Each structure stands twice: as C-alpha cells, then as structure tokens.
Amino acid sequence: MTSIITRGPSWRRRLAGVSTAALAVTAGLAGPALAQQTAQAQPGAVTLDEIIITAQRREQGLQEVPIAVTAFSQEMLERTAATGLQDVAGKAPGVTMTQFNVGEPQIFVRGVGTTSDSAASDPSIGVSIDEVSIGRAGASALAFMDVQRVEILRGPQGTLYGRNASGGALNVYTNRPDFAPYGQLTARYGSFNEMGLEGVFNGEIAEDMAGRVAFRFSTNDGYAENVLTGADLHGGTSFGLRGQILRNAGDWTFLAGFDGSMEEMDGQARIPVTVATTPAPFVAVINNLRAGLNVRETLNPDATYQNRTNWGLTGRAEWQGDNFGFVSLTSYRDNDYDWRDNLGGLTYPAFPLRVDNRAEEQADQFSQEFRFVSGPDANINWVAGAYFFRENVTRTERFLVQTALPIAPPNFGGDTTFFQDATNTSYAVFGQAAIPFADIWELTLGARWTRDEREVHQVAIDNEGGLNAPPGIPLGPTGSPYDVTASTSFDEPTWRIALSVEPLPDVRFYASYDRGYKAGAYISAAQTGAQAVQPLNSELLDNYEIGAKTTVFNGRLRFNAAAFRLDYTDLQVNELAGLNLVASNAQAEVEGFEIETALAVTSAITIGGSYTSLDARFTSDATSAGGTLPYEGNILPRSPDSQYTLYADGEWRVGQGTLATRVDYQWTDDYFFDPSNNPEVLIPSYGLLSAFASWESDSGYKVSVYGKNLTDEEYRNHVIKNVGVGFSVFGPPRSFGVALTRTF
After folding, report:
1. For residue 408, what pLDDT is reported?
2. Is 250 helix (H, G, I), strand (E, B) or coil?
3. Half-sphere exposure for 307 (CA within 13 Å, toward CB)
4. I want to staple 365 with a disulfide (CB 3.0 to 4.6 A). Which of 19, 138, 391, 394 is the partner?
5. What does the pLDDT read at residue 114?
6. Got the DSSP string for 35-98?
7. Entry pTM
8. 297-298 and 224-226: which strand pairing?
C-alpha cells in the first residue's frame, strides 16, 4: 500500500521511537505542563512545583489523577507567547491542530478528531471554557484573554464531559474576580506590523462583591500576499472583552459573566504543491504560473476574507455544605462567522479549475448542568449530576466552480448552494466516585447515560436553474438538487473504570478502561436527497490504558508515562474526494505510548520535554450511503508516528527585578492529512523553535521579547487534494515581538 511504503517499516520506526524516548527520560526532559505552577516550593529549594488541576471537577494535584493530562499555567502561556489553542495544542503529547479557516479549527488527539463542518454533527474533541462545553468547532477557536490555565485531557472523557469528548477534552479556565485590587496593561508590537493592547482590571465592588474586566485588541498586516491584487493575507483585526462579577453570600457563591469577540480577518494564501504522482501537464502549468513565488504568495483571483463574532453569558451558583456541595452552571452562547476562500490559488483558465468557496453559519446554544459533589473531608470523593444542551445551527455554503479540459468539461462547473438548518439536543445524567481502600489503593467508577436528538432541514440548489446540466460540482455530475427533512435520536451509556495504587509516596500506577461516544450525524453537502437523510452511525471508542505518575529524588524529577490501546467502532471519517465531501463510518485501532518528565536542575532552572509514539490504522473500509472507500490498512489522518517537545525554563534575580527565559522546540513526524493516504496529502516532518525572555522590575514594569519559528520552517497547516495536487496553506514564517507591561 502507498501509505506503508511512504512511511517505512513500522518496526524500525517503533525502535527509533523507543530509543528517542529512552534518551529523553535519561536527560530528564519534560512536557510543557510542568513549568511554573501554582503551589510553590520553599524558597531556594531544588524541587518541582505542584500542579493543581480540576480535570475531575474538583481540585487535585496532577500526580493524583489517573488520567493522561497536560496542563499549561498562565505563566507558561505568557512565556510561549500563546494567543490561542493553536499555540499550545502541539506542545501536548499526541495532539495536532490545523485550521481550514477561522470557523473550522481541526483538533486531533491520539488520532481522534473530525473535519466535518455539518450543522448536524459534533466535534470529537470537547472544548470548554470555564466548564461550559462549546458545541460548534468555530466557537472553540478561542483567543486567550486573562486565561488562568489550559488542561488537555487525552483519551475519551465520556463520564464527566459527555458526548463530544470521545477522543479527549481541551479545557480553558479564566481568572475569576477576587477582592484584592489588581490591574495590568500590556502593549505589544511585532513582525508584520502586529500591534496589540491587553488589559485586566480587578477589585472589590462592595463588601461581598468583586468584579473583573479583561480586554484584548490585536491587528496585523498578515504574513502572506496575493500577488495578483497586492492584498495582504493571514492578517486582520480582532477585539475581545470579558467581564465577571463574583458575590459571596454565606455558604453560597454566585458568579455571572459575559464574554464576546469580533474578528475581521484576511483570507488565506492557498498554493498548489505537486508530488511525484501529479500528472506532468499540471506540474508544468503550475511551475510556469508560480515561477519566482514563495510558499506564502498566492495567485488568488478572489477577494477572500474570514469574519467571526461570538459572545456568551454564564451564570454559576455554588453552595458548599459540611457533607456535600452543589453547582448550577447555566450558559447561553452565540457564534456567527462567514468566510470566502479560493481552493486553488491559481488563475483560470491558465489552470483548468477554479473553486470559489463561501460559507456563512449562525449558531446559538443553551446549556444547563446541575452537579452535586462530595464534601471537602469526605473519604469517598464523588460527583453526580444532570446535563441539558440545545443548539440551533443554520449553515449556508456556496461553490462557484469553473472547469476546463483536461480536468472536466466546462459544463461540469456551476454555481451550487447547500443549506442546513439543524437543531441538536442532548440530555445526560452522570456520576463518578473515587473509592480508597487498603491504604494504598483507589478505585474510580463512573457512568453516564446520554440521549441525543437531531432534526435537520437540508437543501441543495443549482443556482443556474438547470440551464447548464449537469448541476455544478460538487453537487453534480451524479447528484441532483433536493429539499429534504430528517430527524433521529441516539442514546448510549459511557463509563470509566480505573484502579490506581501508590506503593511509595509520590509513586502512583494506574490501569483504566473508558468508553467514549459521539452521536451519529447527518452529513453536509450531500449529493442526493437520499444521502442527506441517511445519518452516520454513532462513534464508539474503547480505551485501555496503563500509566505511571511519579515524583522522585526529593521532588526534583517527575516522570509520567501512559501506554494505551484504542478500539473504534463506526469511527466517523471525512474525505474530500475531488470536490465531493464524503463522510462515512469505519473501524480503526490505535496503539501508542506517551512520556512526560521534568527535572529541576537548580532552584532556578527546569528542563523538560515529552515523547509520543502512535500506530493508528483503519481496520476496515469506510461505508456510507454514498458508497465504500478502500481505507483498510491506511493510517488515520493527523496521526504522526512520533512527536516530541523539549524546553528549558529559567528564572533569576537580576538587579532590582526578575529575569525569566524559555526556549521551546516541538517536532512532528510526517503524517497524512486525510484518510486516503494519497502522496499529495502527506505532510513532511517539521520542527518549530521558539524563545522568550522578560525582565520585570520590583515596581511592576516588565519588558518581554519573543520569537516564533526561529528556524523559518516551511510547514503546512491545511491541504485540499484534487487532480493529484495538494492545495496547501503554509504556517507563519519566522516572527518576533516585544511587549511592555505595567502591573499595578
């Protein structure tokens, strides 16, 4: 098979992966979760700080939780110049994140993810902000603003997080108001004429009430160019605002919040990338048209753009008694976006295909969760609750296509619109308990029952009214216009069983079995009415995992490891075949291991890194109402054989202030962008190097400098394949920035 020949013998890669992991452990390298956390060690002590997380809906140390989880503190987010999930996802083991556009980020964990844009589908990786689950992928591409920490949980989280966390969960937590007065302003300037201003204001409003306001403004010219028009690309302007009010009333605490953001962004610089199997005539045309251009210059004939507005309201009420506590979490969120993209980046008819792709989506969601939790002194820690979620999504996508031979006859082009109006509703009840016994053992048992209901109205329109039959690609030539409605429901139990043991202080081993679930879906851009009303099956995932979480040498060395096997039933998978999006179900298996370690070299210096090895393959062909695709034996998309990260972090007293530095390197092995495993969707391996330094005076002034992609690596963020060509978007080149901060 092409995929096996391209990737090389699996035993050789496994041996290389184990060797690399062994070297990482010997050197005391660590994952990015492990720098500068919350609970501080004694001054001058050569030890690692403790990491506090809430992955199981209660505060715990990272080393206590029998889950593979990576956490990023506020300090680490600053020292990596992280502005969104895309800046931290690749630093966690087994995680990749790419982006089709501002409305369609694509997150994969341990080979699990989705590229579906359907209004009647769910993400595979759950994303939440302050414990509120985000239903649409486009509303999850959050800009970081006054963020306290980010937690990335790997493996299914079906008990506490629900239906759309079959592969894992990315949880963002913002800073709550407190009663101590605090303020901070940051101004920044960087490459591509980037300018930004950020601020946080916090303090007491009344004797029992505190408030917090944060904002973020950013603008830049973009790192790419449309050479036909001279327009800048991959830039734009964004603004975000968040406000929260906290009130303490005896045993009750009330938190009300608002957040919103607006983005007006440029379009993308998509370019064609040829491979050995690309037809020679296309190679010649592309080379001639693009002579003298670099990978961030496009010949896009269309005025492209990406715009998004989202906002939300959240209300949280907490009561804490002697024996148990209660949490009510209510949220409403609204997300609108629209974009226009040229999927080829070449002039027509010099290249015999032009695809002008436009989409608009309006979505709103309401969610309500009630939770009961055990008291702080309970011997058995437990949580139980009920959850309700309803989402309304209206999506319109239009394709204006021009074709010429040898790709297709001119009448195969056309003007086609797909419309979806969907309502997605979910109900769930859940519970989980951690039961200690025999001094050193703990048994975790959890279960959730979920019911999902979908209603959808789907329309496909030939905007030319049949004047140039067949209807335009991607509806034609085998499809036809339709106007259909459908509804269905799915219900499924999920569970978690974990057994952990702590034979020595700070040395914990665990074994777990988790069931993950993602509800069935109606596909978007179906070619026929029959396909539009035939849902995909629900996705089920069984995860078997063993792990170790250890802290040794008097707290100086932390070593965490996990080995896992994932068995998929009816994995939902998408492939853009030509210009037709084909969604189907397939079986798959994933095996792998992850290592994260940290070493406190001195009281001032920590070095770290992580390593991940994956063997992720389809074990069947993919089937759907549209037919069968030959996937058996292929490698799952976005599943590199290996990934690793390295970092060094230091902090010293210099003069009347503190000097902090950090260097990060992340390396990703080659991987296939879609399940076809075609040569044109193979992403070559790449490494990204970044650095940060700051000096903060004792009086609250700070100057920071940072650089990203310092080796100026050319790497691809997205690929659309057609006619043997990989039409690609490349990531940002080398960039630098400086920030001035005043804390008061």
Report:
1. 87
2. coil
3. 11
4. 391
5. 85
6. SS-SBPPPTT--SPPB-EE-TTSS-EEGGG-SSEEEEEEHHHHHHTT--BGGGTGGGSTTEEEE
7. 0.89
8. parallel
Tens digits of per-residue pLDDT, 560-592?
999 999 999 999 998 887 777 788 999 999 999
Cα–Cα nearest to 277, from 644, 734, 726: 726
521 CB contacts (<8 Å, ≥6 apart)?
116, 118, 120, 121, 122, 454, 535, 536, 572, 583
Reduced to 3 states (helix: H, G, I; strand: E, B; else coil), residue 283 is helix
**Is the CB of residue 473 less than 8 Å from the CB of residue 578?**
yes
Residue 1 has pLDDT above 60, yes or no: no
Which residues touch 92 (CB under 8 Å, ≥6 apart)?
A: 31, 32, 33, 70, 152, 154, 610
pLDDT tens by residue, 2-41: 222 334 334 334 434 443 443 333 333 333 333 333 334 4
Q: Give dist(CA 412, CA 472) in Å, integer.
A: 6
The pLDDT score that the predictor gives to residue 142 is: 64
Closest CA to 541 of 166, 95, 169: 166
In the chain the first and final C-alpha atoms are separated, in Å, by 62
Q: SS3 letters for 667-735?
A: EECCEECCCCCCHHHEECCEEEEEEEEEEEECCCEEEEEEEECCCCCCCEEEEEEECCEEEEEECCCCE
Q: Which stretch of 323-332, 612-621, 623-632 has the lowest confidence by average pLDDT?
A: 623-632
* CA-wise closest residue to 572 among 546, 541, 529: 541
Tell me if residue 344 falls in helix, strand or coil: coil
| Secondary-structure breakdown of the chain: helix, strand, coil percentages, each rounded to the nearest 5 | 10, 60, 35
Residue 502 corresponds to which tokens in the numbers above?
């702590």
**What tokens appear for 474 in the block?**
């991607």
Exposed (0-12), middle (13-18) or buried (19+): which is 466, by Cβ within 10 Å? Answer: exposed
User: Which among 326, 297, 452, 458 is positioned nearest to 385, based on CA atoms?
Assistant: 326
Cα separation, 675 vs 683, in Å, equals 13
Sequence-distant (≥ 6) Cβ neighbours of residue 149 within 8 angstroms: 53, 71, 72, 73, 74, 77, 173
Residues 374-428: tens digit of each pLDDT: 998 899 999 999 999 999 999 999 999 999 999 888 888 999 999 999 999 999 9
The Cα 690–Cα 672 span in angstroms is 25
What span, in angstroms and rounded, lies between the C-alpha atoms of 160 and 173? Answer: 16
- Contact present, 558 and 62 (Cβ < 8 Å): no
- Give the integer Cα–Cα distance in Å for 283 and 724: 10
Q: What is the chain's mean pLDDT, rounded?
A: 90
Do 114 and 105 touch, CB atoms closer than 8 A?
no
Given this model, what pLDDT does residue 141 score? 59
Two tokens at 393? Answer: 């999504």
**311-329 pLDDT per residue, tens:** 999 999 999 998 999 999 9
Q: Say if residues 668 and 657 touch (Cβ distance below 8 Å).
A: no
* Range in 131-135, 137-141, 504-508 with the lowest mean pLDDT: 137-141
The alpha carbon of 622 is separated from its chain's Cα centroid by a whole number of angstroms, namely 25
